[in-house]
Fold this sequence. Notes:
Elements: E1 4-11, H1 14-26, E2 32-45, E3 48-62, H2 66-76, E4 85-88, H3 94-104
Antiparallel strand pairs: 1-3, 1-4, 2-3
Amino acid sequence: MNKIRVVLTTCSDADSAAGLASQLVxxxxxxxxxxxxxxxSIYRWQGKIEDDAECLLVIKTTVDRAADxxxxxxxxxxxxxxxxxxxxxxxxxxAYLDWVLAQTAARK
Length: 108
C-alpha cells in the first residue's frame, strides 16, 4: 500500500492559504501544498446557503503524518469547521513519492 496521501482544505483568501501552507511545510507535515485560487464554494452553514470565493489547498503528505497534519489544520485554520479530506494515492512517479516521504520524515 502506498503511504502517500493528498489532503484537501479550503481557505477564505490567498494570504490565509499561504500562511497555512507555509506552516504545514515548515513543520514537516506536508512536502508540498498547491494553492488553487478562484474556487467557488456553495454550501449550507448555520441554516443558510452560502456562496463564497475560496482557495483550495492540495496538500501532499504521508499516512504517518496525516494525524499531525489534521491537528495542525484544526489549530491554525481560521474556520470553525475547516474542510479536511484525506485521500489515498494509488500510484505515481516513484521519484516524486520518495521525495514526499523524505520531506515529511520526522525531523530529529
